[in-house]
Amino acid sequence: ALSEAGVPIAGEAGVGYSLMKGYQLPPVMFTVEEATSFFVGGELVKQFTDASLQAPMVSALEKLRAVLPRDRQEHVERLVRNTLVLGRGRAAPEADAQPWLLPVQQGVVQRRVLHLHYRGRGQEEESRRDVEPLGVVFHSGAWYLVAWCRLRQDFRHFRVDRIRRLEMRGETFPPREGFSLARHMEESVPETETVAVRVWFDRRAVERA
């Protein structure tokens, strides 16, 4: 009767009957997009908050990861491996909404060639190019796509809010041997962009500082 009602009963000779593991848990029905947003948000929390928030966030994400279906776990894990959060958390003054961030992330995870209509800073005309998306990076207040540009035959960084149009091709590409997103960014972002400083404040202004 329980089986007919949809309750998952497991039976084993010499052991008996039992409820399948996890049946008592409420169903987790997160879409791929929702799960992705949680884990990308977790990377931002780890970078821009202190340990009082970091530890609970890591714990919560591990619980979420454990109950996601296997295909969504793989999707999320591949995206997290190819996402970097660098620099400060404040958005750049000219940054717009990010309508193309999700399809860019999907392209990275699925290794799908992307066709971009892109207008760089100071450019009047859009350029069109096919790229192999390798990772997404949050840097200096903006999201960037790191990709192999087939037009330039080199690695290029595309600011996501400057993408005017995006099409996901049916073509897939193999992993680029030897490529490391973290190492690539270390080599691409010059250390001169940041300057270490020490500031002295009057004792009366310390709390406000």
How is the biggest beta sheet arranged? Answer: 6 strands, mixed
- The proportion of residues in beta strands is 25-35%
What is the N-to-C order of secondary-structure elements (H for helix, E for strand)?
EEHHHEHEEEEEH
Helix content: 25-40%
Shape, per Cα inertia axes: flat
Give the count of helical stretches.
5
Structural category is alpha+beta
Radius of gyration: 23 Å
Q: Point out poorly predicted stretches.
A: 91-95
What is the total tally of β strands? Answer: 8
Summed over residues and divided by their number, the pLDDT gives a mean of 83
Distance between the termini: 68 Å
List the helices and strands and how they pair.
Layout: E1 9-12, E2 16-19, H1 32-48, H2 51-67, H3 70-81, E3 83-85, H4 101-110, E4 112-118, E5 127-139, E6 142-149, E7 154-159, E8 163-172, H5 181-188
Parallel strand pairs: 3-5
Antiparallel strand pairs: 1-2, 4-5, 4-8, 5-6, 6-7
How would you characterize this protein structure?
The chain is α+β, with helices and mostly antiparallel strands. Helix content is 31%, strand content 26%. It is built from 5 helices and 8 strands. It has helices at residues 32-48, 51-67, 70-81, 101-110, 181-188; strands at 9-12, 16-19, 83-85, 112-118, 127-139, 142-149, 154-159, 163-172. Strands 3, 4, 5, 6, 7 and 8 form a 6-stranded mixed β-sheet that branches. The protein has a two-stranded antiparallel ribbon with strand order 1-2. A hairpin with a 4-residue loop joins strand 6 (142-149) and strand 7. Helix 1 (32-48) runs antiparallel to helix 2, helix 1 (32-48) runs parallel beside helix 3 (70-81) and helix 3 packs across helix 4 (101-110). The longest helix has 17 residues, at 32-48. The model is unreliable at 91-95 (pLDDT under 50).
